[in-house]
Amino acid sequence: MATRRPRKTGPSPAQVLDAVQKGEISSLYYFHGEEDFQRDQLLNTLVETLIEPAARPFNLDIYRAEDIDIPQVIAQALTFPMMAQRRLIVLKNADRLPDSATPE
Fold first, then answer.
1. Torsion, Cα of 22, 63, 95, 100 (10° steps)
2. Domain coordinates of the chain in residue numbers?
3. How far apart are CA 52 and CA 86, in angstroms?
4. Going by CATH, does the domain composed of 13-96 fall within 3.40.50.300?
5. Residue 56 to residues 21, 47, 67, 83, 95, Cα–Cα distance (Å)
6. CA 48 to chain CA mean position, Å
7. Which pTM value belongs to this model?
8. pLDDT tens, 78-90?
9. Contact 91, 74 (CB under 8 A)
């Protein structure tokens, strides 16, 4: 009889926060699940940790999938950070991306 392999999951929010606070920064994070509060809290912590307040107008871009302009997001992703080490691009509600945003 075949046995089921445990479903592979990513790190917990606590593990992500711990890694970020240690300076172990990934190039991409994907947060999903039912807990809006926990997801928003984790995102806020990332913003606070990664982007200095004075640099946020230049290095923090937040998009909603419902209103997305894919070429603009790609252009932002290809832009170097201004007077900072990193830039952060956030896409909220990625599960609501319009069909026109996916390649054919």
1. -140
2. 13-96
3. 10
4. yes
5. 19, 9, 21, 10, 25
6. 13
7. 0.78
8. 999 999 999 999 9
9. no
